[in-house]
Amino acid sequence: MTSKTLLVLAWRNVWRSPLRSAILISSVALGLWLGVFVIAFYQGMNEQRLRGGIERIGHLQIHSPGFREEYDASLPIPSVEESSRGIASTPGVGVAVRTVARGMLSTVRSGDGVEIRGVDSASESQVSRLRTKIVEGEFFGGSYRRPVVVGRKLADRRGLSTGTKIVLTFQDSAGDMVSGAFRVSGIFQTSDMRFDEGTVFVPRAQVNSLLGIGDSSGNEIALRLERPEELEMEAERLRRRFPGLEILTWKQLSPDLELSEASSSQVLYVFMVIIMLGLAFGIVNTMLMAVLERTREIGTLMALGMRRGRIFAMVLAETVVLVLVGAPAGMSLAALTIAWSGTTGIDLSRFGEGLGQFGMSSLVYPRLDPIAYLQVLALVAVTAVLASIPPARKALALQPTEAIRSL
After folding, report:
1. How far is CA 82 from CA 123, 215, 403, in A?
2. What pLDDT does residue 255 have?
3. Strand, coil or helix: 112
4. What is the pLDDT of residue 246?
5. Domain coordinates of the chain in residue numbers?
6. Which residues contact 309 (CB under 8 A, 6 or more apart)?
C-alpha cells in the first residue's frame, strides 16, 4: 500500500462518521482560534505596558553616583548641558535633561507627596512625549509665570483644573525647605494611574532657582533610543564615555517592567501547552472511539496480511488529516481576528481603573509575531502525532481472530 493510497483510505475513514469528525475539526479550529488570539492579546497588552513605561522613564538614565538613593539636590550632573549635547549628537538618540526632586504638593484643602520633574518642554517631548498626553490646557502654556502640569488622577482627586493655584515644597541643595507657588497650566493622562497621581512637571529653570543650583543645572539625563535592541551597547558606550556617572537601563530603573518582559515568553508557552493539551485529549478520545468501532474491520485487515506498521500508519494518517483540516481554519480565523482587533483595538475601559494601577492602557491592540504562527503549527503537528499513539497502540494490540468475532 503506497503512501498516496494510505492517505486516500484515511480520508475516507475520517468521513465515515461525518458528525464526529466535524465536531473534532470544529473543536481544533475553535481551540486554536481562541488560544492564539489570547496569546496575541496578552502580548499586545504586555508590549503596550512596556512601551508606556519606557515613555515615562526613557531607555536609559544618567545620574551622579548616589543621587537616586535620596534624590539629593546637591548632586547635580557636572557640565550637564555639554554632556547632553554630546549625547544628542549620536544618531537615533533623543535626550532630555531633567531636575528631579521629591516633595509635597499642597492645595488649600490638602497635600500629597509627589515627584517634581523640572523639564524643558522641547527636549522632554523627545523622550516622554508628554505633549501628546495633554488632555486639558497646555504644556507650560498660557500666561502663567510659574506653570505646572499635573496628572489626571491627581487633578480629579484634589479638584484641580487649569488655573488652580498649588504650592510645591521640597529641600534645596543646602538641605533647607523651600516652597514655590505654581498654577496648573495643563493636565496629562497616561496609562499608568500611579504615575499620573504622583508626578508633576514644571519648567526646569524655575525648579533650579528654588533649589539654588543654577538655571542650567540638572540631576538627570534621560535617553530614548530609536533602536531599542541597541540598549546594552549604548549603555556600555556611555559608561566608557562618562566613567564617573551612574548609567542605568530601563531594566534596572524599573524591575517590574523587566520582569514583565522576561515572563511574557514563558506565559506564551504556558498558553500554548494548555491549547495543545486540550487538543491532544480531544484527538485521543475521538480516535479511540474510531478504533473501537472498527475493531472487526481492523482484525479483518490483519487477517488478510496487512502489517501492523501499516495499521499504525493508517491511524496516524487519519489523525493528521483531521488536524490538517481544522488547524489551518483556526489559524486563519485567529490571524483575521488579530489583524482586525490590532487595528481597531479592544476597549477595556470598564476595567480601566484596575488596569491603570498596573500601568496598562484600557485600549489593547493584540499583536503576534509571524514566527509565532509557525511555532503553533509545528506544535499542533507534534501534538497530532503524539496523540495518535494511544489509539494506534490500541489497534495494534488487537488479535485478528478475537477482533473478527467481536460485535
Report:
1. 14, 14, 89
2. 80
3. strand
4. 93
5. 3-53+258-405, 65-244
6. none
108-114 LR contacts (CB < 8 Å, sep 24+): 109/158, 109/159, 110/158, 112/154, 112/157, 112/158, 112/197, 112/198, 113/198, 114/154, 114/168, 114/198, 114/199, 114/200
Spans in the chain with pLDDT lower than 50: 356
Q: How far is CA 175 from CA 74, 172, 178, 270, 312, in A?
A: 8, 5, 9, 52, 82
Q: Which one, of 199, 174, 186, 197, lies nearest residue 57 by Cα? A: 199
Sort 225 into a burial class: Cβ within 10 Å, 0-12 / 13-18 / 19+: buried
**CB atoms near residue 214 (< 10 Å):** 13
Instruction: Enumerate residues 6+ apart whose C-beta is below 8 A from 297.
Output: none
Neighbours of 88 (CB within 10 A): 17
Closest CA to 52 of 137, 114, 130: 130
Q: Which residues, 6 or more positions from 374, have their beta carbon under 8 angstroms from its beta carbon?
A: none
pLDDT at 402: 67
**CA-to-CA separations, 396 to 11, 55, 235, 309, 380, in angstroms, rounded:** 20, 61, 62, 9, 24
C-alpha–C-alpha distance, residues 327 and 35, integer Å: 12
Q: Which residues pair with 170 in a beta bridge?
A: 103, 178
Q: How does strand 199-203 pair with strand 60-63?
A: unpaired
Distance (Å, whole) CA 179 – CA 199 = 17
Q: In the structure grid, which three cell numbers stand for residue 271, read together? A: 498558553
| Residue 266 confidence (pLDDT) | 75
| Euclidean distance between CA atoms 125 and 314, whole angstroms | 64
Count the neighbouring beta carbons within 10 Å of the beta carbon of residue 155. Answer: 23
Sign of the CA dihedral with 13 first, then 18, 23, and 27 last: positive
Are 335 and 25 in contact by the 8 Å Cβ rule? The answer is no
- Give the residue among 129, 134, 178, 170 at the shortest CA–CA distance from 155: 134
Q: Which helix (H) or strand (E) holds 363?
A: strand 363-364
Kindly report the length of the chain: 407
Q: Are 387 and 291 in contact (CB under 8 A)?
A: no
User: What integer pLDDT is reported at residue 288 of this predicted model?
Assistant: 78
pLDDT of residue 28: 84
Unique residue bearing C-alpha cell 509575531: 369
